[in-house]
Design brief:
eight-stranded mixed beta sheet; about 300 residues; Acetyl esterase/lipase; single chain; about 15% strand; GDXG_lipolytic_enzyme; globular; 8 strands; BD-FAE-like_dom; alpha/beta
Length: about 300
């Protein structure tokens, strides 16, 4: 496996793309290209969670796909502690404000496209996978990838996603803003700072909210989408996922939506591989990755020979 990290912003040490490239072998695809998954961890646009990074990439690699982890522009620097956000007056950064994070996706896809021959990546089969804020990021990208907000900066021939996988995403910021008002002070504080990062203000305008609300912007160019969440998620309610599912259905976009009855926000793989506490392990929710694998195989089946060399 080729593991290499590319910095995407010379002014930020924690904005980068890490590759998990499956080494070629005559016993496997023997020079044929593989599909790939580009992963966007969550973290409320304040950091990029390690729990939703490398372990996710390795799980997709075990399916036979190249994987990439994108650490997009977030408020905190590499060495900043997450807890400090609640103990000081938080100042925004111009480099995190929308559309910065979707531009990071386009930059990452461009880099992958430019190295596709070397890495043996099938650029017609690249899926985006995101969790929580990363889920918001990939679903935002799914509705903006071919619009001027992206194509005025990037070559549209290099940045088209083939599919989207979103775990417990925010997809409608109008509904989300109303939900935040019902939360406790800690959650309200978290989302206040998240707004500063994503929108540059604690109180974004309706136009800003709409730009980051994929459920309201789905059209016939939105890629097929796989969504999963838990009904027990109190931080990002399950309605954020069902609203996107309804929008995809109304637009005729292929999708799957899986809601597990129990489980907190931010489960990642929902196994001990991505857990720091027992509450982050969930036997039912862990099924999402197997369901996603079956869904992907309909679109991303590897170019295998019909018969084994031994038959």
């Amino acid at each position: 496996m080729i593991i290499k990290t590319f910095n995407l912003d010379e002014n930020r040490t924690n904005v980068d793309l890490t590759t998990y490239i499956i080494s070629d072998s005559p016993e496997l695809l023997d020079g044929k290209k593989r599909p790939a998954i580009l992963i966007c961890p969550g973290g409320a646009y304040l950091n990029c969670s390690d729990r939703e990074g490398e372990a996710i990439a390795l799980r997709f690699a075990s399916m036979g796909y190249h994987a990439f982890v994108l650490r997009y522009h977030v408020l905190l620097e590499a060495d900043d502690a997450f807890e400090q956000l609640f103990s000081r007056q938080v100042k925004g950064r111009a480099d995190t404000v929308f559309p910065a994070a979707i531009h990071d996706i386009a930059q990452a896809l461009t880099l992958i496209h430019d190295h596709a021959g070397e890495w043996l990546v099938d650029t017609d089969k690249i899926a985006l996978c995101g969790f929580s804020a990363g889920g918001n990021n990939v679903t935002n990208y799914s509705v903006h990838w071919n619009k001027p907000i992206v194509t005025d900066v990037f070559d549209v021939t290099k940045i088209k996603p083939a599919a989207i996988i979103a775990g417990y995403p925010i997809t409608d910021y109008f509904v989300h803003e109303a939900h935040v008002k019902t939360q406790d002070k800690m959650a309200q504080g978290l989302f206040r700072v998240a707004n500063i990062s994503l929108f540059g203000t604690e109180s974004p305008s309706e136009e800003q909210l709409l730009q980051a609300s994929a459920a309201r912007l789905v059209d016939d160019t939105t890629p097929p989408t796989f969504i999963w969440a838990t009904a027990g998620d109190m931080l990002v309610p399950v309605s954020q996922s069902t609203r996107l599912g309804t929008a995809l259905a109304e637009a005729g976009i292929p999708f799957e939506l899986h809601i597990f009855e129990e489980g907190q926000h931010g489960l990642a793989l929902a196994t001990q591989a991505t857990a720091a506490a027992l509450t982050e392990v969930n036997a039912d929710a862990r099924q999402w990755v197997d369901l996603a694998e079956a869904w992907l195989q309909k679109r991303f089946a590897l170019p295998l020979k019909e018969k084994s060399r031994w038959i």
